[in-house]
Amino acid sequence: HVQLVESGGGSVQAGGSLRLSCRASGYTYNGVSMGWFRQAAGKGREGVAFITTSGGGKTVYADSVEDRFTISLDSAENMWYLQMDSLKPEDTAMYHCAARNPKFGLSTKGYDYNYWGHGTQVTVS
């Protein structure tokens, strides 16, 4: 049974930084495929950053966060991270980590992920 728990959200001023963490328990696959998604109040879900260790490894970022956010893994600890720098008010949202079987590779689509955390709130003012 896979469980994902996010932490690290909070309130920060524009230009500041936060590091989100996702602790994965029960994720016993050989490798990782996961992503970070966000949903602002009254808006649809948006994919933010994605990573897989399959096929030699790959990362993908949404245009809106390219060069500001960095996704990373600590596979030994089953901890996954999203470093967010130069935060903007439009980054305000609930952030969720999601994962799937790494044999399927990387996906930017939420419906491809079958494991989800409950989210952590990020507010940028």
Could you explain the architecture of this structure?
This protein is mainly beta. The protein is 0% helix and 50% strand. Strands 2, 4, 5, 6, 9, 10 and 11 form a seven-stranded mixed β-sheet that branches. Strands 1-3-8-7 form a four-stranded antiparallel β-sheet, with no helix packed on it. Strand 7 (69-74) and strand 8 form a beta hairpin. The termini are far apart.
Please summarize what this structure is.
The chain has strands at residues 3-7, 10-12, 18-25, 33-39, 45-52, 58-61, 69-74, 79-84, 93-100, 115-116, 120-124.
Write the layout of secondary structure elements.
Elements: E1 3-7, E2 10-12, E3 18-25, E4 33-39, E5 45-52, E6 58-61, E7 69-74, E8 79-84, E9 93-100, E10 115-116, E11 120-124
Parallel strand pairs: 2-11
Antiparallel strand pairs: 1-3, 3-8, 4-5, 4-9, 5-6, 7-8, 9-10, 9-11
Order of helices and strands: EEEEEEEEEEE
How does the major sheet shape up?
7 strands, mixed
Strands, count: 11
Sheet/helix structural class: mainly beta
Q: Oligomeric status of the shown chains?
A: single chain
Distance between the termini: 37 Å
General shape: globular
Instruction: Name the average pLDDT.
Output: 97
Radius of gyration, in angstroms, nearest whole number: 14 Å
Proportion of residues in extended strands: over 45%
How many helix segments?
Answer: 0
Enumerate the spans where pLDDT stays under 50 for 5 or more consecutive residues. none
Q: Considering DSSP H and I runs of 4 or more, what fraction of the residues is helical?
A: under 10%
Defining key terms:
mainly beta; 125 residues; 0% helix; seven-stranded mixed sheet; 50% strand
